[in-house]
Amino acid sequence: MGTKPTVIDRARSRKAQGHSGNRNGPPVDTVTALGDWPDPTPLGAEIQAPAFPREILPGPLAKLADEIAYSMNAPVDFPAVTMLALASGAIANSRAISPKRSYQESPLVFAGLIGRPGVVKSPVLGILRNAFDRRQTELLRDWKDELEVWEGRDPKERGPRPTAQRVLVSDTTTETLGLLISENPRGLIQVRDELMELVAGLNQYKGGKGADRQFYLKIWSCDPLLIDRKSDRSAGGGPLYSPRSFCSIVGGLQPDVLTQFRQMRINDGFLDRWLWCYPEELPAAGANVLEVSDALRGQWAGVIDRLLALPMEQRDDGTTRPHYILLTTEAREYWLEADREIATALNVEEFPECLRGAWIKLRTYLLRLALILHCLRNALGESVGEYIDGESIRRAFLLVEYFQGHARKVYAAIDADQTVRAARKLLRWLPGCEGGRFTAREAYRQLRGSLDKPADIEPILALLSEHDYIRAVPQPEPKGPGRKPSPVYEVNPRQ
Q1: Whole-number Å distance between alpha carbons of 389 and 429
Q2: How far is 60 from 292, CA to CA, in rounded Å?
Q3: pLDDT tens-digit map of 162-198
Q4: Cβ contacts of 288 within 8 Å, gap of 6 or more
Q5: Which of 50, 77, 138, 207 is deepest in the core (most CB within 10 A)?
Q6: Which domains does the chain have, with CATH numbers?
Q7: Residues 338-359: tens digit of each pLDDT
């Protein structure tokens, strides 16, 4: 946007510099000279993710993120991303962004904070969720008062048992969460210190054969929920129903359990729906006496209170729906431009297949994040008006670029790229090659169980060649009829 180079411009620049990154093309079949071997470049080396773009946060929230980070010696990413996720849960189903009449998006977010134990993910969550805890305490107190009055009435006249209103959930099964969503149509936020507990709990009561993951896929899309497995406590045995499910999620995760989180055998897009925050770890530091100011804490609590107070719209038939917020003309142009840039990245030949699902979901997140930023700016008194403006779209696009960088880091950390995983497997076989050479046909036999057809070995050999683990050996042109000889490769003795 603006004068910034597009994704495809950057891709063309990399290609012009010789960094093709191609995973689908044929392996190089000629070399100019054998010469001395360079040291190979490690496969899947850790990617340095970008720093959080602080300028996207309204002024007081940027200061709050800084103070939390400084006082806890934490990356500013943790409080910043946590604020966005919590704001999404406070807005919930009260608002939806509508870039055109036939399309609406709610502000739902699945956010994961990744860091080793001791990098204060949980304390950051704790200090920022206080406003929700206070509101939840008030709601439960009101419910107990209503329940006391209800129990004191004549059973023939007291009507349905009062239901406790919720804004916050923590550890829960999908059945219980479905019930809570149906009882709280405005929506919920789920805050977990350890996201791995959520993943480990999926289908734990069903021998691993349930549909818990599909349940969360529906939640992310705000799809209607109709659950027949558990009766609504107040509906005389009827099914649970929510016409527009909503439950944002935010929590922490340790790098060592990322592979478990992915559950690689299930490629259903569950991993792609998360906004990952995986910042560089800060050097250890001694204790300090820095505090988070009461004024900033108060402003944050006020923001959450104002967002939680946003009402849903009442229909004539008594049902509710979000209030739809439209885009200004400038904002719509910005949205179309930003979305085209993400689409352009997907069409670049070198784009990694393993990231495709995440990039597609980030096109949706572009709108969701713009809605969250719009509501935050409104809650802090910025003059942004009723419609979402171009500035909120611009900031949301900066966030998309940030989360793209962190997705790359996460997917590299878990070897999500099937080509990289296969190349690692082939690397373990290379030292045993007779004479330090092998053919493409021999390499395919080693990976036959992992590949569908012989041509699938080509991007793997191209990757190993690109990282200087192997190189093609020039072969004379074949003469006469017959099958073309399989390409020959030489193994780098330095590995």
Answers
A1: 56
A2: 12
A3: 999 999 998 888 888 999 999 999 999 999 988 888 8
A4: 70, 71, 73
A5: 77
A6: 7-44+417-491 (1.10.10.10), 54-413 (3.40.50)
A7: 999 999 999 998 898 889 999 9
